[in-house]
Design brief:
The complex is a heterodimer of chains A (282) and B (288). By secondary structure, chain A is α/β, with parallel strands linked by helices. A 6-stranded mixed β-sheet of chain A has the order 6-7-8-3-9-10, with helices on both faces. A 4-stranded antiparallel β-sheet of chain A has the order 2-1-4-5, covered by helices on one side. The longest helix of chain A has 18 residues. Chain A is globular, with a radius of gyration of 19 Å. By secondary structure, chain B is an all-alpha fold. Chain B has a single domain, classed as MetI-like (MetI-like fold, Orthogonal Bundle), CATH 1.10.3720. Chain B is 74% helix and 0% strand. The longest helix of chain B has 33 residues. The radius of gyration of chain B is 27 Å and the shape is flat. Classes of the chains: A alpha/beta (282), B mainly alpha (288). Chains A and B meet through strand 6 and helix 2 of A and helix 8 and helix 9 of B.
């Protein structure tokens, strides 16, 4: 898993520059991230890692175009992101991201048709191909409510990959799964990446998951989220989890995240307020 | 004293392949029959009919309370003579016009309400103003505006269907989860396409219950309106039929008219709405 880690292009695919993000509740404005900058290159598996309250999900939503930036800018292939679009497909943690009124196959076809990227026959073929990749061909005509959590996430991943987005955004996609299923899904995601080499932006709060899944990790400190470090993790795969280097890096990350002197978060202490996003039509 | 659990030996089984055993057992016939909703409902209906017939016989006054058998005979007679079917046809035609217009307007209003703030204010103000207003109270005005014809009936029907429908639909739209909303936006859906492909199917349970409530409201309003309005015009629907027969003291035919209303209600609920639910929200696991 080391040879592929050559930036395919000299310029980054995604640039996040000095981004401040705010979220609003009724009385106040709370800063979610402060001056966050990073670059993501094509075919990287870029992980945003940090404790809760570091604004990693907010960052991902901003890149998805769901959350406007307060300052700074985010650019995909040089174009500033202003709204959601099918070139940045998102896989959510929640299982209800699959419209329940569509079968598995229709769910995978849905974005292809909705965005006008493919005609029906072509979309069907495409969808079948990616359903096969995630091993769900047998369930093509099933409705989402009959699937297990892991299978639903597989459908969401197949759906996102079938669109061949420029970046695949994953917001703690395996957090709601049980530990055994989660491990299996991590393996499958990596296997898929080996095959398709998509660009992945992955949010997690698990150090282990970051090291296994990611090729590069951005560490964020909480309240507000600021960049603490960027760490390479392309050398670690699923099988390295027990070995000494892996454990050492994990410990290092742990120290980086938690060794900070506590000063700031006294007066404002916006701890544990989950940001509420203004989604269109609300 | 510290309590130490015993340390016991470990063991391992090699699991042989399962022999084919019957894991599925069929339920006894009576239980299977009783699992059909239509059967249970039929039994309830039967019990009600028996109570009615018994009460009528005990009362023994055809003018006040004719029995089920007598009323049903009158019903069959008038069905056969073609009088009831004409009246039912007239009522249903008016009803469906008003119902469809009201439902479409309700969906349009709620779509407006989810997409703009002023639309939301408009909907909430209008519904709080007009929803409590009985449709029948608008009938005199409606007659003034639209004359003695179908149009004034349609006007009150639209009024009675639209507001509860709009409230239900809007509540359904508001209940769509953020994740689904973001998913839809992620595909680049916006405006009408967003409403059509995401909001309406996701809110379908609420929309269906709105349609049901609207249907009941429409029936009530129509029969009540015809009772008032039909008296002033020769051509009338079921309400007029009931009114006329009451005047002539054919109480069994009054009941025949009521039976028609009830049967149509049961048919629409049992056939149309149940089927709609079966092929949509139940199939999709959105409703039990």
């Amino acid at each position: 898993m080391t040879s592929q880690f050559q930036p395919l292009a000299a310029t980054p695919l995604l640039r996040v520059e000095a981004v401040n993000l705010d979220y609003h509740d009724r009385q106040r404005v709370v800063r979610a991230t402060q001056e966050v900058s990073f670059d993501v290159y094509t075919a990287e598996r870029f992980v945003l890692l940090g404790p809760s309250g570091c604004g990693k999900s907010s960052l991902l939503k901003a890149i998805g175009g769901f959350l406007p930036v307060a300052d700074g800018h985010i650019a995909l292939e040089g174009r500033i992101i202003t709204q959601p679009g099918p070139d940045r497909l998102m896989v959510f943690q929640e299982f209800d991201q699959l419209p329940p009124w569509k079968t598995v196959l229709e769910n995978v076809m849905f974005p292809l048709l909705a965005s006008g990227k493919a005609r029906r026959a072509e979309a069907r073929e495409h969808a079948r191909y990616y359903l096969d990749k995630v091993g769900l061909t047998a369930f093509a005509d099933a409705y989402p409510h009959t699937l297990s959590g892991g299978m639903k996430q597989r459908v969401a991943i197949a759906r996102a990959l079938a669109m061949q987005p420029k970046v695949l955004l994953m917001d703690e996609p395996f957090a709601a799964l049980d530990a055994l299923t989660r491990r299996k899904m991590q393996e499958e995601l990596l296997a898929l990446w080996e095959e398709v080499h998509f660009t992945l932006l992955f949010v997690t709060h698990s150090i282990e998951e970051a090291l296994m899944v990611g090729s590069r990790i951005l560490l964020l400190s909480p309240h507000p989220g600021r960049v603490r470090a960027e760490i390479n993790s392309h050398q670690y795969g699923i099988d390295d989890i027990g070995n000494a280097a892996f454990q050492h890096t994990a410990q290092h990350i742990h120290d980086l995240l938690f060794s900070e002197p506590r000063v700031a978060a006294t007066e404002t202490s916006p701890a544990r307020i989950k940001p509420r996003f203004k989604v269109v039509g609300k | 004293m510290s309590l130490q659990p015993p340390i016991r030996p470990e063991y391992f089984h090699d699991l042989p392949p399962l022999e084919p055993i019957t894991l599925v057992k069929s339920l006894p016939l009576t239980t299977r029959l009783w699992n059909h909703a239509w059967l249970r409902k039929s039994v309830i209906l039967l019990v009600l009919i028996v109570i009615w017939e018994a009460a009528a016989r005990w009362q023994n006054n055809d003018l006040l309370l004719p029995g089920f058998i007598q009323s049903f005979k009158a019903f069959l007679q008038d069905m056969a003579s073609g009088e009831l079917p004409t009246k039912i046809g007239f009522s249903l035609a008016t009803l469906i016009k008003g119902y469809v217009i009201g439902s479409v307007l309700a969906v349009v209003m709620s779509s407006l309400a989810v997409s703009t703030r002023i639309g939301r204010d408009l909907l909430s103000t209008l519904t709080s103003m007009f929803n409590p207003l009985p449709a029948i109270a608008l009938l005199p005005l409606s007659l003034l505006w639209f004359g003695l014809g179908e149009n004034s009936l349609i006007f009150v029907l639209v009024h009675s269907v639209m507001w509860p429908m709009a409230l239900n639909t809007y509540a359904g739209f508001m209940g769509v989860s953020d994740t689904l909303r973001m998913t839809g936006r992620n595909y680049g859906l916006r405006g009408l396409r967003y409403v059509w492909y995401i909001l309406i199917p996701a809110a379908l349970p609420s929309i269906l219950s709105g349609l049901k409530v609207g249907w009941a409201f429409a029936w009530r309003t129509l029969i009540a309106a015809e009772l008032v309005f039909g008296a002033q015009s020769g051509k009338g629907g079921l309400g007029w039929y009931i009114y006329q027969n009451r005047n002539e003291l054919f109480t069994d035919r009054v009941f025949a008219g009521l039976i028609s209303v009830i049967i149509i209600g049961l048919l629409v609920e049992g056939l149309i709405f149940t089927t709609l639910e079966q092929i949509t929200v139940k199939r999709w696991g959105m409703q039990k």
